[in-house]
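Page 42, continued from yesterday. The earlier attempt failed because a stray header line got pasted into the input along with the sequence. Redoing it now with the clean sequence only.
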Amino acid sequence: MRIAINALPYTDWQGIEVFLAGLLQAWPKNNQDEITVFANQKSAAFLQPLPDHLKIKIIDFKKISRPRIFLYQQFAFIAELKKTKTDVLLCPSLLSPWLYRRKVVIIHDLAPFIFKGESGRVGKIFWQICLWSAKYFSLGLATISEFSRQEISHYLKIDSAKIINISEGCPTLALTNNQEDETSLKKFALAEKKYFIYIGNVRPRKNLANIILAWEKFNATNDYQYYLVIAGKEDGRQAALKDWTKKLNIQKLIFVGFISAAEKTTLLKKTQGLLFISLYEGFGLPVLEAQSLGVPVITANTSALPETAGTDGALFTNPLDIEEMAKKINQLVHDEALQQKLIAQGKLNVQKYSWEETAKKLYENLRNK
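This time it went through. Structure tokens are written below.
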């Protein structure tokens, strides 16, 4: 069987890319199959080295841009797939060749259609077409949580049995030694500080404004002993958030920008806890990352987050209730027994997730198409 995997659209190391990398590293070996990963120069760099039974074909774009990649997918890529007699194309997200029918599309969540501010008017039209293509021009759909499976079924008005839930695995985090930890902590001036951390972007659904307001309320009642570290790509939304916090004179915030894999490991290992209290997530990988390192997690009681974190694996809160969020942070800080319980339950929860199982489910689904 000839299986193609579409890594062409990806140029940054974010959630989809972490998912795809984990999937490829765990891809089952079958000598009867020919697996080809189509990538651009950037995605090829962060996905390699691949297992020996996967081969990569790099499409060398003279200038990488979303329009160029989009046009290539819709025309030249379809021609290439037909020429090589590809049996099925796996698209790790909604970014796919729209009119190519022999594809399986993974829909991680419906955020562009659920939340205002996730994309503009043109963007929303674009994502609607992508979703329409996935529904009407594909062999099947997959997603990453039971929450998303039911939501997609309802939104697209299709039987949930036609959507496979492959889940996700726990990301393999970089290993760091004491010297590397000291270097990272010194870089961000955190060596002697007690801090909580948020990791992710600043999209509206990430709920950063409410998290920060809850943080300020909590910290004010604790003599401002703690810092909140915000790690993620520096863009216009983050700049606007920084300006907003300055106007409100919110203290003890540290924006560290995009961090390396090693820096992420260090900052998680040394934190008091992860604050990942989104309004909406299709899965929520940072929750598993924190749990795998024995870090207590405070997360939202909405969307897929309770499913991902496990019933007892996190401290849950209403993401719209600033007072409640502040109380939960305070509860975690002052209750050592609770801390130890969350750490223990979190480590148990992580064991439920395996990239090997995720890849196996998806692979078997593809082979049945």
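Notes: The chain is about 45% helix and 15% strand.
Reminder to self: strip header lines before submitting.
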